[in-house]
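Second attempt. The first submission of Glycosyl transferase family 17 protein had a stray character pasted in from the spreadsheet, which I only caught after the job came back as garbage. Lesson logged: always re-copy from the clean sequence file. Corrected sequence (361 aa) follows.
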Amino acid sequence: MTIRSLRKPPPVKLVFPSLIILFLTCLFGILTNLQTISYLFRPLWDKPPPPFKRIPHYYAENVSVGHLCELHGWTPRSVPRQVFDAIIFSNELDLLELRWRELEPYVSKFVILESNTTFTGIPKPLFFDSNKERFAFAEGKIVHGVFPGKKRSKGQPYEDPFLLEGQQRVAMNWLLREAGISDGDAVIMSDADEIPSPHTVKFLQWCDGIPDVMHLEMREYMYSFEFPVDYSSWRASVHIYSRKWTQYRHSRQTDLILSDAGWHCSFCFRRLNEFVFKMKGYSHADRVKRKEFLDYQRIQKHICKGYDLFDMLPERYSFKELISKIGPIPPSASAVHVPAFLIQNAARFRFLLPGGCLREP
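This time the job returned cleanly.
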């Protein structure tokens, strides 16, 4: 009897590893929540918004602002325009200091509105009000307001957090007027973690002819400047103020966008409890589908690995884009073209730099 040696079959090549990951993610989503399914099939049921008309952004060190104005097709001013930086504030104390230190030489008034509740109705301290001494360097420029939030009664369902968020943004219109804004001044409308670059704000100061309204394209980061995502952040905007027309908003208001105009550092907190606070209190708190999402060890692992805190698929309008964004955010070893104050104070803000993913409790 002849015994034939059996040849091993050739190894199976994973030709489409991303598709396999997509399939497994889809299967997991079906077993867990419908939101994942909705995001997975977004290319089938949703259409992308109209593309922005991009304004090229010219900047280099040691080039005069007058010359930069002219490169953009704008006219240099002889007297600087007043600039108002207006933000809704929750608990982003480190990013707020980074923002104000970076912009203080160019901003006339820092207008900050905070509430005694989160957008989900959870009572909260007035974090800015109790830490004012940290911002003494800008004391003469700060206009601070408190919005009376609506506390959620025990056992009662959440009120729409976007409604409460919208009410705060409407209240900002009043606070801007209290700050002394006038027609022709510039106002920056953005969240605390959407930080315009200093040279972007210098354009607002020194250039005439800039659009009455334009969005600011910002490079998006997650958890720190170690995890750059892309340039998809667009909600920040600047306006040449008109008492008759200008309304404080955080939605699309024009097709014009200034390219590469700042940094959007989302969930860039020093402490794990700050992550949990935001996850429970911001307008997308419904993304916390399971209790373990708030576990410190899990959050720490996700930060260092670049995973999504909510195990969500990316919001994309084509399957090609969706597949390209699946998985962890690749870390970067570069800390070039980040806020100058961050580099000048690297020891204090180590958690925002490459290699600093470990967080305090």
